Amino acid sequence: MNLTGKVCIVTGAASGLGKAIADRYAAGGAKVVIADLNADAAKAAADDLNARRAGSAMSVAMDVTNEDQVNAGVDAVVKAWGGVDVLVSNAGIQIVHKMEEFPFADWKKILAIHLDGAFLTSKAVLPHMYAKGSGAIIFMGSVHSKLASPLKSAYVTAKHGLLGLSRVIAKEGAARGVRTNVICPGFVKTPLVEKQIPEQAKTLGISEEDVVKKIMLGDTVDGQFTTLEDVAEVAYMFAAFNTNALTGQSLVVSHGWFME
Ligand code: NAD
User: Fold this and answer.
1) What is the average per-residue pLDDT within 232-245?
2) Could you tell me the pTM of the whole model?
3) Which is the closest atom of ligand 1 to the Cα of 141?
4) Catalytic (active site) residue 236
């Protein structure tokens, strides 16, 4: 149960949760691929990891909604490092609007990044995992995979959808050693969340302080944000757990905001 020498692709790893997961995997001895739309930031994150642990990281520029870019990125990883052991499909964005004002283009953009991205990256890595007879796929869900909030129609729909896709891959992959699980974090202070605070304050007509205290953390057991490290630790556990006892599952990491 460790990741030493395992090849782990993390999408959206130039920032936030993906970056923290890549750091945690590298600290555990893995070889990590920083796959991100932002090529410069991806390279900087990989350089930073390599400065601390030589040979532990490579970067790949990839828009997860673009099939050719996803396939080319995975091919480059396989060429460089011989295979893929772990995929974390993490890249994501947030756009908030009231339902009746939600631009159709924004709806499609959110669904594409979260759902097409998970589909395309999984489809690209599965043949390599099947060839080895082992692999772990982890989707970045959310508490919004389990419940709904106002203004987030597209995000909630996409995050619920990831649970279904994960369960199908868990069933198809079991006989060939591939497990799939979903992490469902509460609010973590990343650029994605920092951006939402003023947006929600404006849309709901309340202060930014109230957005944090009442909307984001109001239902937690202790009023605390979930941390990058909390989520990275769960991502490590799902990647390193190596039997089908733990597949097709989702784990909520949210200071008790959602309990099941
Ligand atoms: P972030 O904005 O810090 O990082 C997202 C990364 O994804 C960025 O580096 C960005 O360049 C990349 N990205 C965006 N679109 C992409 C695309 N089409 N192809 C490739 N890369 C792309 O965000 P974050 O908060 O770290 O979020 C990461 C994931 O965690 C998302 O799926 C998000 O929905 C989920 N999540 C976040 C929170 C939270 O509170 N921050 C809570 C639950 C779930």
Assistant:
1) 97
2) 0.97
3) 44
4) no
